[in-house]
């Protein structure tokens, strides 16, 4: 904590708008990146990440997420448009901003021949602003934070991918951070590893740290994030509170019945659009009319109705409704 208050006292830092809790932690305006080969990777992006949010940056592979993150972190220059992080322009203010940002971008790459603890000690000593006298306490706290205290003495080459990912997070957490940027933090992990990283993200966020994480997994965003932005082909499709995004899409009417053919016919007669038949289930867009009448029509037609209702819309429904295409993770 001492380090943070010392850094905060610097006049350069006093300018950061992050001292205003209401101002967005990330704000981009018309942010655009065209690579030299001509590829338009990010196209006119207006992104607003509220302070304290767990913000999911969602999109299929190749939709421009990594390119955006690299611009936010000052690693590459935008072709046009602006990006502000903690209230300061990037990449210009990188030196003032980046000490407050923990990032896990390229995936974990610890030295295998060093223990997890020694990797962190080495990483910390590469930071000229880190006080060597408090180094071992800082490393111990970071290991504890990610649940690697017991494994801290093991060589990193013996770590599972999930443990390496947690070690990467520990490195990002050596200093107090206002923002954590995680690019596909659960990519390649098994379900248990995914659960661990997700609960760690929730825990970090509960301390008030803003977390910006990219993912191509819709259910991950629904499970972990308070807010999300959806990208497709370099463009922003929508952004906002996850709750509102899903609510924007209408749910599906679902009828469970052994008589799927008759049920599908009756639903169409009742004005249900986009009727789809699956094993023991017929679904469609909920009609404007009274649902009880639709149900009664099914029963009158002799359809044996085992279940009838509207399923809550998911973020996936919202994505499909907004883009008119499926969420193709293979991109
Ligand atoms: N250095 C580069 N030079 C040229 N084109 C690039 C470069 N990096 C990325 N691209 C292209 O820009 C587009 C967006 O890529 P980007 O990596 O930002 O997407 P992404 O959403 O992060 O996908 P992924 O999850 O696969 O990394 C893609 O079409 C990609 O091929």
From TrEMBL:
GO terms for molecular function: ATP binding. SUPFAM superfamilies: P-loop containing nucleoside triphosphate hydrolases. Residues 1-15 have a biased composition (Acidic residues). This is ABC transporter ATP-binding protein. It comes from Streptomyces caeni. Residues 1-23 are annotated as: Disordered. Pfam families: ABC_tran (PF00005). Signal peptide: none annotated. Keywords: ATP-binding, Nucleotide-binding, Transport. Belongs to the ABC transporter superfamily. Residues 26-258 form the ABC transporter domain.
